[in-house]
Write a structure and sequence with these properties.
Elements lengths: L1 E10 L2 E11 L4 E6 L5 H8 L7 E6 L7 E4 L13 H6 L3 H4 L7 H13 L15 H14 L4 E5 L7 H16 L3 E5 L3 H7 L2 E5 L3 E6 H4 L2 H6 L4 H5 L2
Parallel strand pairs: 3-7, 3-8, 5-6, 6-7
Antiparallel strand pairs: 1-2, 1-4, 8-9
């Protein structure tokens, strides 16, 4: 589905990714892992054409950029902005409705269904600043879901949420995967990767390994990726 060919990306004079060459197939559920500064978020941005490649590139074999739904890191969203949960989630439908068209009763029904799916029913009229950390993350998931995209890209979807919320949101991702969607997620918690993600790509500024999770997250590969020995010993 997505062919990444000899991708190299610089941030100013810093080499973020070098010669990444791989493919992500339709229907995969893949975790992108690596130590801090390994280029994980850079790879997501390259897939979404948000950064310019110094060499190589990303090619979509079937679905294109319009078929991507992106879930950002929660701390990158301004929680002080005066907007309700309904307004925030509904904004995810702009590709269907346009910027100025009315939000139809059908889309409102979809929005409420997405809120129920993530466990936020009856919260549509709350201000986003009233939400707890876990509720805020659930809202981000609802906005992703309402886009009904074929490719889901998530940047640290379980960061700073409790285990109950993590289990609920992991179940949402698994449901999307079971429905045939392609899921690409940056994950920093290795036990979560091993529990929920059948495929993994391990980065360290370059691609160390990609494939079935149990074959990628070996001690040898983790050491090559620059992980601390204590982390490696926990595998």
């Amino acid at each position: 589905m997505i062919k990444i060919s000899k991708l190299t990306v610089h941030y100013q004079n810093v080499l973020a990714l070098e010669n990444v060459d791989t493919e992500i197939h339709q229907g995969e559920m893949i975790a992108i892992v690596g130590a801090n500064g390994a280029g994980k978020s850079t790879l997501l941005k390259a897939i979404m054409a948000q950064v310019k490649a110094a060499a190589g590139g990303v090619e979509f074999k079937k679905f294109g950029l319009k078929n991507i739904a992106y879930l950002p890191q929660s701390q990158k969203v301004d929680r002080s902005f005066p907007i309700t949960v309904k307004e925030f989630v509904s904004a995810g439908t702009w590709r269907k409705t346009g910027l100025w068209r009315a939000f139809t009763p059908f889309l409102n029904k979809q929005m409420l269904a997405c809120l129920r799916q993530v466990g936020l029913e009856n919260s549509e009229h709350k201000q986003i600043g009233e939400l707890s950390g876990g509720q805020f993350q659930r809202m981000l998931f609802a906005r992703m879901l309402i886009q009904d995209a074929q490719i889901l890209i998530l940047d640290e979807p379980f960061n700073s949420v409790d285990m109950h919320t993590t289990r609920d949101l992991a179940a949402v991702i698994q449901g999307c995967h079971a429905a045939g969607k392609t899921v690409i997620a940056v994950i920093h918690d290795m036990p979560l990767v091993k529990q929920y993600f059948p495929e993994t790509a391990l980065l360290a500024g370059r691609l160390i390994a990609k494939g079935p999770t149990e074959q990628v997250l070996t001690q040898d590969n983790m050491c090559k990726a620059g992980f601390h020995p204590a982390t490696v010993n926990e595998l």
